[in-house]
Amino acid sequence: MNIYIIPLELKNRTLLDSVFNELMTKFSAEIFIDYMQIPYENAHTDNRRQYYSTQIISNAINKLQHLNGKILLLTSLDLYVPALTYIFGEAQLGGKHSIVSACRLHEEFYSGLSNETLLIERTIKEALHELGHNFGLKHCDDWDCVMHSSPGIEEVDIKGKYYCRECSKAMPLKV
Amino acid sequence: MKEQNNILIVDDEKIVRDSLLHWFEEEGYNVDTAEDGETALKKYEKGKYDLLLVDMKMPGMSGIDLLTKVKGNDPDILVILITAFASVPTAITALKQGAYDYVTKPVDPDELAHLVKKALEQKSLKRENKILKENIDVITKPDNLIGESLQMKKIYELVSTVASADTTVMVRGESGTGKELVAKAIHINSKRKYFPIIPVNCGALAESILESELFGHEKGAFTGAQFKRKGKFEMADGGTLFLDEIATLSQKMQVELLRVLDTKQFSRVGGNQLIKSDFRLITATNQSLEDLVKEGKLREDLYYRLNVFTIHIPPLRERRDDIPILSHFFLHKFATVMNKPVKKISQGALDFLVKYDWPGNVRELENAIERAIVIGKGDTIKVENLPFHIASGNISTDTGEKSLAAVEKKYILQILNENNWNISRSATQLKIDRVTLYNKINKYSLRTAVEA
Fold first, then answer.
1. Mutate to test the interface with B, among A80, A103, A111, A149 (most CBs of B within 10 A)
2. How would you classify residue B277: left for phi > 0, otherwise alpha for psi between -120 and 50, otherwise beta?
3. Which residue, of A23, A31, B54, B138, is most buried by count of CB atoms within 10 Å of its CB?
4. What dihedral do alpha carbons B117, B118, B120, B122 form, nearest 10°?
5. pLDDT at B53
6. Looking at A130, A154, A155, A166, which residue is catalytic?
7. Nearest CB partner across the interface for A151, out of B113, B140, B223
8. Is B83 in the same domain as B131?
C-alpha cells in the first residue's frame, strides 16, 4: 500500500514535512510526496472567493490515474462545498482521494496570534481524519479518536490525534 | 452497533444534494436524496426517515408545501428548511407549519452539524439512551492509570466513588504525578463520558488569553479575531472542564470563574448573549491552596467552592513498588513509537530506577526511559543508558534535616512504603521486632500517603 501526499498551492514546507513524517511514523504503508500539478482554477467560485473541493478531487482523479494507493492533496486554498460555508477537508468514503486545507486551521484567524505548532497539529489531525474516510471509516463517537467529527476548529483541537481501538482496525498502522 | 438515523435531502440543485449527501454520510447517517417535492413525497411514503432537509424554493411543489404534507401524515417528523433567500415572513410561515428550524445557504458546517444532532436527540431521548448504552463497549478508555501499589489502589477506589457523584473534584499532587490522568479517569467513569473532557492549563496562559480561551469570543471582538470562537466553558457543555494549575489564576479570573460556577452562565468576549453550559469541574494544583488563602492570593469563597472532594496523588518515591511496572509500560510505549527492538530492562538498571527519588515523578521516569531507548543499543536498557544523576546512584535529593531522629523517621517511612505498609515485612527488613516498629510509627506519627 502506498500513500501519496500531493502539495497543492502549499508554500509551507515545514507543514508538508511534518505531515509526511507523521504518516511515516504511523503507517506501515510507503509514504511519498509527489509534486504533480493538479489543476484547480476551474474550482474557484468568484462570489465566494473559495474553491469547490469536490471539483479539485475530480481534477485529481483525472490527472493521477497512474498512481496506485491513497492520494492526499494538501493545500492552503480555502475550500467549500455548496450549502456549507467552508470545510477543512473532503474525502471519498472508502475511495482513493482526499483533500485537506490548512487555510482555516491557522490560529491567527481565530485569536490573531500565529501558532505554527498548533497549525501542524491541526493539519496532521485532519490529514489522518480524511485518510480514515478513504479507508472506509465514518465519524467516531470517541472524543479521543481522530475520526471524531470536527465541523468547527474547537472540535479539531479537542479530539485526539490517534485512531481509537475500533478505528485502528481499518487502518494500515505500524504494529 | 450504533443505530443510524435516516435523512432525506430534498433540493433541486444536484451539486447541493451531492455535497450534503456526502457530508452527512461521513457523519454516519443513512442518507437519501430527492430532486423535487413529488419524488420526496413518494420516497417518504415508502421509506422511514427521521429528518428531512428541504430546500424552500423548488420547481413544482415548494418546500413549505412538502412540509405541510409530511407533517399532516406524521406530526413528529423533523423537517429543517434551507433557503438561499432568507426573509422573516417565510421563516415565520415555515415555523408555523411545524418546521424544526430554518437555515440560510450556505450554512456553517458547525451550525448544521449541531442543529441536526440536537434535532435528532430531541426526537427520541429513549432511542438516544439505547444508542449510548450500545456505545459503551466501543468507546476506548484514555491512557490507563498505572500502578499496583496500595496507594494507587486507594486512588482507584476514590476515583470510582467520586466519578458518579458529579461533584467538583480537586486533584492534588506534585508535578508529574499524573493529575490529568486521574481527571480523565474520573470523567470516563462518569455519566458525562459521552461528552468531551476539556483541559485548560491556567498557568500557561496570560490573563487576557485565558479569558478568551475560557469564555470564547465573537467575530471582531479584538484585532485578529476574524472568526468567532467558542470558549472552553461552552465546549465542556455536557462534559468535564479540567483546570490545571488553578492556583495561578489572577484575582480577576477568580471572580469570573466563581460567577460562572455559581450561575453556569456567561457571555463570549465581545458578545452580549448569555450562554448556558452544564459541565463538571475538576481542578488540579501542586501548591498549598490553604497557604495561598492565608496570604490573600486565593479567594476563600473560591477555595471552598473548589475543595469539595480532594484526591491526593502520592509522589513516585512513596510508591516505589510501581516503578518497575511503570518502567515496562513506558518501555513498550516508546519502543513501539520509535520502532526500536528494545524489549527489557536489565536488573542493574531497574535497581537504580527503583532506588532513585524521582523529584519529577512519573513524568521524569517517562523521560528517562524515552532517553534510554533513544541512546540505547540492543534489546535491553542498561545502567549506562540512564541519565547520569540516576545511574550514578545519587538517590537522594533531600536537603532536609540531618539529625539522627529525622534520618531514622525518613528511613522507616521509606521501608514501610516500599513494603506497602506490611508491618511484618518492614520489621524483618529493619531487623527490629513488630512492637518496636509500631512504637516508632507512633513516635514519629507516620501515616500512609493516602491517609496523609
1. A111
2. beta
3. B54
4. 160
5. 94
6. A130
7. B113
8. yes
Most confident of A118-132, B26-40, B262-276, B296-310: A118-132
CB contact set of B25 (below 8 Å; sequence gap of 6+)? A93, A138, B31
- What is the residue-wise DSSP string for A7-59? EES---HHHHHHHHHHHHHHBSSEEEE-------GGGEETTTTEEEHHHHHHH
Number of domains in chain A: 1
**Which residues are registered as beta bridge partners of B242?**
B199, B282
Query: Do B180 and B284 touch, CB atoms closer than 8 A?
Result: yes
- Identify the band that residue B395 occupies on the pLDDT scale cut at 50, 70 and 90: very low
Residue carrying the nine cell digits 413528529: B76
Grid cell locating B267: 457571555
Residues of B in contact with A90 (CB under 8 A): 22
Q: What is the pLDDT of residue B140?
A: 37
Is B109 in Cβ contact with A87 (below 8 Å)?
yes
pLDDT surpasses 50 at B139: no
Cell of A38: 493538479
Residues 6+ apart with CB under 8 A from B152: B145, B146, B319, B322
Q: Which domain holds residue B347?
A: 317-391
Q: Whole-angstrom Cα distance, residue B42 to residue B39?
A: 5
Q: Work out the end-to-end distance of chain A between its first and last CA atoms, rounded to an integer number of angstroms.
A: 15
User: How far is B408 from chain A, CA to nearest CA, in Å?
Assistant: 47
Is B235:B184 a contact under the CB 8 Å cutoff?
no
In-domain check, residue A174: no
DSSP state of B174: -
ipTM: 0.72
Are B304 and B323 contained in the same domain?
A: no
A116 has catalytic annotation: no
Question: Is A175 a domain residue?
Answer: no
How large is the C-alpha radius of gyration of chain B? 29
Element (H, E) at A99: strand A97-101
Q: How many domains does chain B have?
A: 4
For the residues of B104-125, what is the DSSP string, one character each?
Answer: ESSB-HHHHHHHHHHHHHHHTH
CB pairs under 8 A between A and B: 116
Average pLDDT value for residue range A72-78? 97
A110-136: burial string, b at 16+ Cβ within 10 Å, e else: bbeeeeeebbbbbbbbbbbbbbbbbbe
Asked if residue B106 has a cis previous peptide bond (ω within 30° of 0), the answer is yes
pTM of the model: 0.63
Q: How far apart are the first and last CA of chain B?
A: 46
**Same domain (yes/no): B287, B321:** no
Select from B276, B268, B265, B253 the least CA-distant residue to B217: B268
Please state, rounded to an integer, the average pLDDT across all residues of chain B. Answer: 85
Cβ distance B196 to B223 under 8 Å?
no
Residue range B314-357, pLDDT digits in tens:
999 999 989 999 999 899 888 887 888 888 999 989 998 998 88
Cβ-Cβ contacts under 8 Å, A91 against chain B? 26
Give me the CATH number covering residue A164.
3.40.390.10
